[in-house]
Amino acid sequence: MDFALSSEHEMVQNMVRDFSRKEVYPGIKEADRKQEMIPSTLPRMGELGILGICIPVRYGGQGMDYIALGLACEELEAVDTTLRVAMSVHTGLSSMTIFQWGTEEQKEKYLIPLASGEKLGCGAFSEPGAGSDFAHIQATAKKDGDGYILNGEKMWISLASVADFALVTVRTNPDTDKASAGLTSFIVELDQPGITRGDIHGKLGVRAGSTGWIAFQDVRVPVVNRVGEEGEGFKVTMSAFDNGRYTVAAGATGLIRASLEASVAYAEERNSFGVPIADHQLVQAKIAMMAREYEIARLLYFKAGWLKNQGKRNTYETSIAKHFATDASFRAASEAIQIHGAYGYSDEYDVERYMRNARGAMIYEGSNEIQTLIEAQYALGRRKDRALRCELPAYDPEYFQSPS
Amino acid sequence: MNIVVCVKQTPDTAATVTVEDGKVSWGDAPLVLNPWDEFAVEEALRLKEAHGGEVTAISLGSEGATEALKQALAMGCDKAILVSDPNFSGLDSLQVSRVLAEAVKKVGEVDLLFFGRASVDSDTGITGSQVARRLGWPALTLVAAIKAIDPGAKTISVERMLEEGRQLVSGPIPAVMSVVKEINEPRYPSFMGIRKASKAEIPVWSGGDIGLTETLESAVTWPEVFAPPKIETQCEFVEGDTPVEIATKLVDRLVEEKVI
Hints:
The structure holds two protein chains of two kinds. Chain A is α+β, with helices and mostly antiparallel strands.
């Protein structure tokens, strides 16, 4: 067992950290206030290869491993959650799922532009009436010759208004015994007639990011854009969540670290009762909690990333990592505000943004209540991993790094 | 063009510097590529991209000090060389320039030699000029822009950044240049570069390899280092019934304290 990061991983970490701090941090408060994305952020993340970090070079990516993906997410969210959200939906839900389940033609046509950052992708799964109860989504696709006709609405979709492609899961068969067996996934190009979309404003957090809705009205999607077989949509979507949740876990770990660092700095400079507040044991208790939970969250996502590198299923470990890190990031940000006192309650300091941003991750990519059920089912032996027809490929440096 | 960049591994500038028992301590700060050297690496890479050739990064340091060189490789340098010898430990810049000049000679035909304007730890800013003198090449210091370069005619024209303004300087190459931060915006390492750097076997040149086996004596030593004096502040309210009275009292106090 080796807990040390490789020199390669350390350089990835430094590079993403430098980018986030130099190019995003100076403008993030203003963007958060205005509820607008910083226009240069996603193109720069594409240009620098961050968006395609763990996709093989032959598919337009950078050929790094899944630990590198986690480290990048940690660094991005230590500056702002919106950056990591882009990784979750573009890289985790969309690109990695096409890499796992897509045909060679789909990888050529869609994965290469996504991984190279030329195009943006998102995952369109939740609906106005179905999130946690995903098996009962209402959007439909009906077979029509060599294509399908899509109808319905997707909601709470990150990058909805800016993405070029969406991985969309809808119901193709309303008559299956199990509702989940009637779902099918598709890659949908979003610049076609019948698609309307927009952003949702007034969110508590992640205000400098795009979260929106996509409506499909008689949208024709060719059969070749179907990801997996008809009826495999639930499995495809759950695979997407195994990848998306991993990025959320790693990102939330970064948010704990950001809260910890802000708290340590403030506790050393602020005095009360004649001493720095860092000397007070009740402040120390809060800082100790953040430090402890940062270490735990990091180990949990490292383990999930290691399993991904080995090509082993990690639904259970990823669920725990996501659940723990997102809960802990909210606790850390909340206590960071407490340490900052009244200043923490104002947006003069970053910690109130951390807390608003942390809250969403306890809901999206599988609410933490859903994570609890997953964990319980595994612990009770009622859920076993069955082999998937398409597994996420293990990290093989030779395959990932060779150009063809 | 054959370009060499001299880089140094320094503590991260975010580190807190303290003085303990007369010695400077950077605590357990991570070691990074000297931030000024990033501009030098970037400019060397841009010249290579424009005119072809290769860029070699050279660093003088202990055998463990390869992080700066890895960063330079990850940014796009073709080669990296660590110059390391127990005899080279703790040298002043005059002796450092001697070591670096010999290392540059060993590289072979070099057209341009780059330095950052200074290193963030010792902050002397003179090593580049000293190396230029030893090599017998012109020193173009504080370069903020390369205005023209003709590798065929072996000429270069640069803009130097001075406090009073900018100065256009032309000269022959090979030349030594030290660059300021206004010259460019350094790139981030690419992922491909990171992979290359992490796998790179960086050759180590000892004193024997560059023909320097005698003991090198520093001319400059640091017999003592002081922490900056602590500034103690006191707050005093100057009060009075009228603004004129307050102002008069304030002036009296400032005169008394020899501020004015």
